[in-house]
Design goal:
Blueprint: E1 2-6, E2 11-16, E3 21-24, H1 32-40, E4 51-53, H2 59-62, H3 65-70, E5 76-78, H4 89-94, E6 109-111, H5 116-121, E7 127-131, E8 140-144, E9 148-152, H6 166-176, E10 182-185, E11 191-192, H7 199-203
Parallel strand pairs: 3-4, 5-6, 9-10
Antiparallel strand pairs: 1-2, 2-3, 7-8, 8-9, 10-11
Bound molecules: zinc ion.
Zinc ion binds at residues 56, 58, 135-136, 153.
């Protein structure tokens, strides 16, 4: 089951599995108290979060990951994201954010997207993670077998006809070929996917 957790300016998502709960994205560094309130409203404490992952490593999607790791929440990193996990360090340094702590990748569990289905199954979640670059090189999407997909900051599906970015179109082609029916974004309202709308046509236009 997918629940939107909003405690700042980013939509973050809690996926409840039969054996554990996955947090997808966090807000800005400094939002930990607000995060506590948001999970309390879901009748969860920090120990109820089995692990966290980020759709990409921009500051508004990963700001409290190190704090969560220090509280015992493991980070699952995908190998395609490894070169980018310190992308936000200089941004937080510039704004003198006193809450931000860079991620220690040596303490993360690093997976390939190909291993994501087995990893999600260990939490009792049916789905997979795929690499969907376009907004950033390190962007991944979580596709649940029930048709829900968390795609982070990928440009909206509703704007695809106006898009000529082949990387974005190819990412959507991958997403839509897997039977996704609803897209959940980092900063916008969720959108339903209309059946039969072919991204391939746009790629070849
Ligand atoms: Zn972003």
């Amino acid at each position: 089951m997918l629940t939107k957790l909003r405690y700042g300016n980013t939509n973050t998502y809690l996926i409840r599995g039969t054996c554990g709960n996955l947090l997808v994205d966090t807000d800005w560094a400094g939002t930990l108290p607000a995060f506590y309130k948001a999970i309390k409203a879901q009748n969860l404490s920090i120990s109820g979060i089995s692990c966290v992952l980020a759709t990409h490593y921009h500051p508004d999607h990963m700001g409290i990951i190190t704090e969560l790791m220090e509280l015992g929440v493991p980070l699952v990193l995908f190998d395609v994201q490894l070169p980018y996990i310190h992308f936000s360090d200089s941004i937080y340094k510039k704004e003198k954010n006193r809450f931000y702590k860079p991620i220690d990748e040596n303490r993360a569990k690093v997976l390939s997207c190909g291993r994501s289905r087995a990893f999600l199954a260990s939490l009792g979640i049916s789905g997979e993670v795929i690499h969907t670059p376009g907004h950033s090189q390190d962007s991944i999407s979580l596709l649940l077998d029930d048709g829900n997909a968390v795609v982070g900051d990928l440009p909206p599906y509703s704007a695809l006809t106006a898009m000529d970015d082949e990387t974005v179109l190819k990412s959507y082609e991958k997403i839509l070929s897997r039977g996704v029916t609803k897209l959940h974004y980092g900063h916008m309202v969720s959108e339903r996917v209309q059946a039969g709308n072919s991204v391939q046509v746009l790629i070849n236009k």
